[in-house]
Amino acid sequence: MAPDLTLPEYIAARHEWDERYGGLLTRARNWRIVAIITGITCLLAVAGLLWAASRSHVVPFVVMLDHLGRPVAAGLADETNANDDRIKKTTLFMWLEGARTVTADVYQQRKLIDNVYAHIASGTQAQTYVSEYYRDLNPLERAHTESVDVHVNDILATTDRTYEIDWTETIRDNFGAVKTSEHWKAALTFVINRPTDERLIRINPIGLYVVTVNWTKVL
Length: 219
Description:
Layout: H1 7-55, E1 61-65, E2 71-76, H2 85-100, H3 106-118, H4 125-136, H5 139-142, E3 146-159, E4 162-173, E5 178-192, H6 198-203, E6 208-218
Antiparallel strand pairs: 1-2, 3-4, 4-5, 5-6
Helix pairs in contact: 2-3
């Protein structure tokens, strides 16, 4: 049986209890409060991230470059498709420029020729026409004595599959002096056959293939 305590002894014992265990209880309660607040904060943060992710909408911005790395068309990806007139004009612009350009850089010239054929439908008039042009005026041989810079002046759609292109060619000698400047026009038709093969997507992403072409010098 515990001995009876006088009031002073009880007060002293209670004070000792408060000093020994009261601080521990207070700290434990504070840590529980901190843990609860931290948990609520984490839940709110996760909920906020999920909400933001569900509402975010990233739209890529596409820039099309020509064979010299110059930007020739740009726009939001979700606003463009294979039937977009801007994309068709840009592709034809690059194709015509590549077909008529002559450069002393052999690697670049071969790359231009490969890109031209990558945009021609096999077994078509355009394939025969361009092949005969390269055979009569081989750009790799012409590059030994001259270069040709092509500047497209205008591209006009006559139908949804036919375009007329107006351009100027500046012919220079190997020292950069201008030999002559010529005005040309071309009429061509094409088809759209969207590629599914990864290799074709890289070289002809919208699947535009020229089927007929005729160009003449404007006197």
